[in-house]
């Protein structure tokens, strides 16, 4: 009897060992393309990379961390794991990519650098980073939660010489820059009317301007759903209106006069109807959803139609459907606007990630780059994509 008992125990141990080996193999296989920060330290790491995607877990489920995924010119994906920063973001200039962890900032390029930070970051604002060309300053705007008298944000800024950080007031629903100033829309509940504000960085000092009120944001159901783009002496952003009583969605181009510091108005851009059962898909998933080229504004809506707007006459122009599905359920994950073409991070019919480029002129698909290995990286993790761009350092490769 004892012999049979021991045989059963041994068999159970063998089975457990087999299951552990299978599990280990699956785990190793699933993260085979995930590297440590050491990989980014290689001098030529970015040389064959054409795009970057930022994924992160949420503040409620942070253990899966974040993944900065780099796509090379052949479509192969390589990821570097970091801390979870919900609605996180990455930045770049023509030579470097800059990303942040909870208490560090990393600069990846010809010379890798790591900068320790004092404050801890857990949430950002989504595509709320950038590069100020005039003074060569990178910045990140992060959500720090409710303070004693107002909402708090944390700005981190710097370059290869070092990074700084400071708590500033405000809850930001849109951000952008003109190469010198950062601009934000502050909708902190402690202020009566949402305001458009300029943020000035001067070496180790940050100044937040008084701002310009945006009265339309106090009207029922109008909200900001885009980044901020500055052209000449005006700042532009996109407003959406979606009511519970109707399946009609309206959107407008809003303008701020920077010289006279006043809200000039909001001008009709387009509208469409969406079935109630998918009403949550009525707004573009990508915050960076419009671009200004010459005197024409191009806005990519959730129905995959490019709505144009003449900034001279301040009237809507032609609508250009992209050569892809116009179903709201199939809208692209992210958009990146280049001067010559529009890039979309999409999921193909077969469920694979792909980067497609499209023409401004007629919406024609110009090039397709299937991404290999991304599913292995993010499958079985609780992460979502929060940022995407084509890498400027290697523009000569992807702009052909």
Structure in words:
The chain is built from four helices and 31 strands. With 400 residues, it is mainly β. The chain has a single domain, classed as Methylamine Dehydrogenase, Chain H (7 Propeller), CATH 2.130.10. The chain has a five-stranded mixed sheet with strand order 1-4-3-2-31. Strands 13, 14, 15, 16 and 17 form a five-stranded antiparallel sheet that branches. A hairpin with a 4-residue loop joins β10 and β11.
Question: Care to give the gist of this entry?
Answer:
The chain is mainly beta.
What is the topological layout?
Blueprint: H1 2-30, E1 34-35, H2 37-40, E2 49-56, E3 66-72, E4 77-82, E5 91-92, E6 97-100, E7 104-108, E8 113-116, E9 123-132, E10 137-146, E11 151-159, E12 162-169, E13 172-177, E14 181-186, E15 195-202, E16 205-208, E17 212-213, E18 222-224, E19 229-231, E20 234-242, E21 248-257, E22 262-273, E23 290-293, E24 296-300, E25 305-310, E26 315-321, E27 334-337, E28 342-347, E29 353-358, E30 365-370, H3 374-378, E31 384-390, H4 395-398
Parallel strand pairs: 1-4
Antiparallel strand pairs: 2-3, 2-31, 3-4, 5-6, 6-7, 7-8, 9-10, 10-11, 11-12, 13-14, 14-15, 15-16, 15-17, 18-20, 19-20, 20-21, 21-22, 23-24, 24-25, 25-26, 27-28, 28-29, 29-30
Keywords: Membrane, Transmembrane, Transmembrane helix
Transmembrane segments: 6-25
